Amino acid sequence: MSDQYDAIIVGAGHNGMVCGSLLAKAGKKVLILEAASQVGGAAVTRSFADGYSVSACAHLLYQLQPQVQKDLGLSPDLAAKDMPTIALSEDGNHLTIRGDHAESLSDEDAENLRAFHGRMTRYADLLNNFLNKAPPRLGTKNMADMFTLAQLGFAVRRLGRNDMREFLRLIGMNIFDELEEKFDNPLLKGALSVDAVMGTHLGPRSPNTILTYLYRLAGNQGKVGQPSGGMSGLSEKLAHSARDNGATIRTSMPVRRIVVDNGRVAGVETESGERFDSQIVVSNADPKSTIMDLVNPRHVETGFTRRVKNIRMRGNAAKLHLALDGLPTIKGLDKKALGGRLIIAPNIDYVERAFNPAKYGESSPDPVIELTFPSLHDTTLAPTGKHVLSAIVQYAPYGLKGGWTGDARESFTKTVITKIAEYAPDIGERITATELLTPVDIEKEFRITGGHWHHGELALDQFLFVRPVASAAQYAMPLEGLYLCGAGTHPGGGVSGAAGRNAARTIIKQERSA
Amino acid sequence: MSIEQVELARLKSPFFPRLEAIDRLYNWHDWKGYRSADAYTNPELEYFAIRNSTGVFDISPMTKYRITGPESRLYIDRLVTRDMINKVGPGRVAYAVWCNDQGQVIDDGTIFHLSEGEYRLCSQEYHLPWLMASAIGFDVTIVEETAAIAALAVQGPTSYSIIRNLGLDGVENLKMFGLTNFDFQGTDLMVSRTGFTGDLGYELWIEADKALDLWDALFEAGKLHGIRAIGTHALELARIEAGYLAAYEEFLPAEETVRTGRSRSPFELGLDWLVDFKKPNFNGRRALAEEKRNGSTWRLVKLDIEGNKAAEHSYIFADKNARKQIGFTTSATWSPVCKQNIALGTVKCPHGKPGDTMFVEIYYQREMHWSRVMAEAKVVDKPFWDPPRRRMTPPGPF
C-alpha cells in the first residue's frame, strides 16, 4: 500500500518548506515529511522549562531572501527588527553598532566604519545575486551555465577598477587583518569579527572569514530581527504557504530511507514502515546524512561518496538557554538596550584566543557569546514578568576531547554563566532553569551531521560551484530523481530560503526541458 | 636515514634465490618496488619457450588485494563495469576494468572469486585508496596481500603436461577463467587457467614461504617439456600478440592524468563487452551511458602493418601523404610467431573500424642514419595470436 506523489520533500526545515511550497505552486503533488513533531527544522520555538520557550537553534533572523518572500507572497512578522549590536564592555562603556555607524567612536574609526560597511554591503549585494541562482557548472558548453558564469565575471568587473581589485584582494582573506588595518576600537573589532565566525569552525585569523562576513550581510545588509513567536512564527508561515499551495505536510514522520529502485529514486520509507512513492525526492537533510544514511553509498559512485564523506561539518557553536525570574542588570544598559543583540567579545584577540582550544578539541575557557533576551520583545515566550536568555556560545567543538559527558556539559555551562556574570553580576540569582545544547545535542535534536548549522563549513572550498561537492552543485545529485534543497547546498546556512528556492526552480526547469 | 644505510631498496620476490641462480644477464628493473628481470638468458629463447614449450614468469610482484565480508559481492559489482553478481560465481576468474565517476578507466585486472564472498583482485597498479573509498557504506574488509602470496604464470603449449606432472588430479577439467585448489605438500595451491600470453597456460598461487618448494617441483616436472624462466621482454612480446592492454601503454590510470582527454573509457579501449548497463549502478555508469549516447572520442585499434619495421612511437595518419594525423601507436613489435608486423594504437573516432586502412609513420635507424617509411596498416578485429589450444578442455598433452 503506497501513495504516489510528484515530489517528496524529506524534512520540513525552512528550505524544505520553501521548496515544497514552490513546487506545489507549480502544480505538483507534494508531500513534506518531517521527523519532529513540529515544522521548522532548526528554525523552531520550543519549551525548555515550565512556561519558558525559546528559538531552540537559530534565534535571530538575518537574511530571509526578498525573492523568497516575493515568490511565496509572505513576509515575516517581526517582534523586533533592526536590532542594534551592542559590544559589551566590563566597565559599562559599551559600543552600540547600527550598520554603518556606532556611538562614541573616534572620528577616524567612524569614517572608516562608514566606508567599510559601504564597501562590504556592495560586495554582499553582488554576492547576493548569485546566492539566488543555481551555481553554474564549470567546463560545460551549456549556454545557461556559461551565461551565469559570464554574469559573475561581469558583475565583479562592473564594480569598477578599485572596488574590483579590493574585492579580489579581500575575498579569500581573513577578517582579522582587514579589521586591524581599518580600526582602533577593540570592541568594534571584536564585535565585527564575531559576525564573520558565528556558527563556523573558524577564528578571525582563519582564511576566507571575509567571505563568511559578506555571507552574513547578504540579502538584508546584516539587519537582524526576531520573528514574533520565535522562529516557529516564521516556520508556521512557511508551512501555511506550502499548505495553501496544495502541499501536504506530515510531522512526526521520520524517513528511514530513500528508496532506490533499478538505479533511480522511487520514493521514501518512514521509520514506521510506511512507503510513499515519487520519482522525485528532495532532501532537506544535510548532504552527509542524505547520502550516507538515507540513500546508502552503494547507489552512487565512489568519487562522489568520497567527496561527500569529506565535507567538513563539525559544529563549534553551542546554544545556552536560561529561564530567568527577572531581567539581570548590566551596568550601563537600560531595559530597552537589553533588547539588542549583545556580544561578549571585548577585542579581536579574545575571539581568536577563544577559538584556539577548539582546534585541539577543547572548549573555550573564555567563550565568545551572542546573547539576546527574546522575551523582551515577545511576551509569549515567558511567564509575565519573567524572561528568557538565549545565547550562542563559541567555541564548543563537536569532537570535544573526552566527549560531551555530564561533567563536561556542567562545567561548560558554568563557564558560560560565569562569563555572562562578569557583565551581569546578578545573573546567577535570576536563573531558574538552564539548558545547554552542544553541537552533539544539535546533531541529535535537529538531525544535522556534526551539529553544524550551515550543513557544512562555509569556506571557499565548499562554496558556490563546489557546494556541497564538486560536480554536484546544481541541487540534482548523481542519482536519478534525487535532489538536495538544504543548507548544505549553495548558498549555505542561515534562515534565508535561498537553497530551497533555487532547488525548486532547478527541478521545475529540468522537468520542462525533459 | 641516508640511502647508504638502506640495505636493499628493492624487494625480493619469494622466488628470488632461484631467479638469481639462473640469471646470466643481470638486467633487472623495478616492478612496483620489486626486482624483476628483463630477461634471464636470451629474450628470444624465452619468447619461444612461451610459444613452443613453456615459459615461467614470476608474477609475485603483481598487486594483490583480498576482499572479503558479507557484502563483498555487492562491493565488487559496484566497483567494476561488468556483471559480477550473476556471471562470476565462486571458482571463476573475471577480467575486469574499473572506472572513476567520469567513466574513465582507473585500471584493468583479474578478479578471482576464491570462494563464496571471498575475492582476490590483481592489478598492475596500487589501488588501496580507491578500493577503500569504494568500501564506504559496504561491510567488506580489504587487505593487501601482495607480499604474502607467491605466484607463477606457467604459459605455453606444454604447460598442461607440466601441471599434470605435478600430480594435480582433475586439473584437466579446469576451463579457461576457472580456478581450483590442490594440496601441495600440505599447503593449499591455487591453480587458475589464466595468463597474459594468449596461449594455453596456468597461474599458480601459493603462500610465500612455500614458493621455493613449488618452483623446484615445477621445474622438475617440466624438465622434459622445455620449461624455462622468462623475463618481461618475452612476456611483453606475447602480450602484444594476444592484443592485451597494459597500463601506461594503452591507457593511463585515470586518477593519475592531469590533462583532460588523456584518460580512456572502456569503450575507447575496445572493452564494450565488459560494460553491463543492465546493472543499476556501478562506478562510471552515468558517464558511460552518456558516452554511449554521444559517441566516444578514441578507439583502440589492432594494426597489421606492411613491412617488418616495428611501428614504435609512431603517428597514425588517415592518408599516405600524412596530411591528417588521427592517432598514434601504443605498443608495436614484429611478431615472430605470426610473421606479422603488429601494433596496438589509439585513433580518433570514427576512424579505426575493423577493415579500415590507415598509414603509420615509422622511423628506423640503419647504421646510424635514420629512414622513414609510411607503412600501410589494416585494422584487424581479432587478436593476432589466438590458437585453439588456448581454450581446449581438456588441453592437449603437447
Protein model, in words:
The complex is a heterodimer of chains A (514) and B (398). With 514 residues, chain A is of the alpha/beta class. Chain A has helices spanning 14-25, 66-72, 107-131, 143-157, 161-170, 175-182, 186-197, 209-217, 231-244, 287-295, 302-309, 348-359, 406-421, 427-430, 439-446, 498-513; strands at 2-5, 7-10, 30-33, 45-49, 52-55, 78-80, 85-87, 95-98, 101-102, 226-227, 248-250, 255-261, 264-270, 275-278, 281-283, 317-324, 341-344, 368-372, 387-394, 431-437, 482-484. Among the domains of chain A are: 2-43 and 64-73 and 229-311 and 452-513, FAD/NAD(P)-binding domain; 103-217, no CATH class. In chain A, strands 9-8-7-17-18-19-16-20 form an 8-stranded mixed sheet, with helices on both faces. In chain A, strands 11-3-2-15-21 form a 5-stranded parallel sheet, with helices on one face. A 4-stranded mixed sheet of chain A has the order 1-14-13-12, with helices on one face. Chain A is globular, with a radius of gyration of 22 Å. The model of chain A has no long low-confidence stretch (mean pLDDT 94). Chain B has 3 domains: 9-59 and 147-242, Gyrase A, domain 2 (2-Layer Sandwich), CATH 3.30.1360.120; 64-144, Aminomethyltransferase beta-barrel domains (Alpha-Beta Plaits, 2-Layer Sandwich), CATH 3.30.70; 297-382, Elongation Factor Tu (Ef-tu), domain 3 (Beta Barrel). In chain B, strands 10-11-12-9-3-13 form a 6-stranded mixed sheet. In chain B, strands 14-17-16-15-18-19 form a 6-stranded antiparallel β-barrel. A 5-stranded antiparallel sheet of chain B has the order 5-6-7-4-8, with helices on one face. Chain B is globular. Chain B starts with 15 loop residues before the first helix and ends in an 18-residue tail after the last strand. The chains are: A alpha/beta (514), B alpha+beta (398).
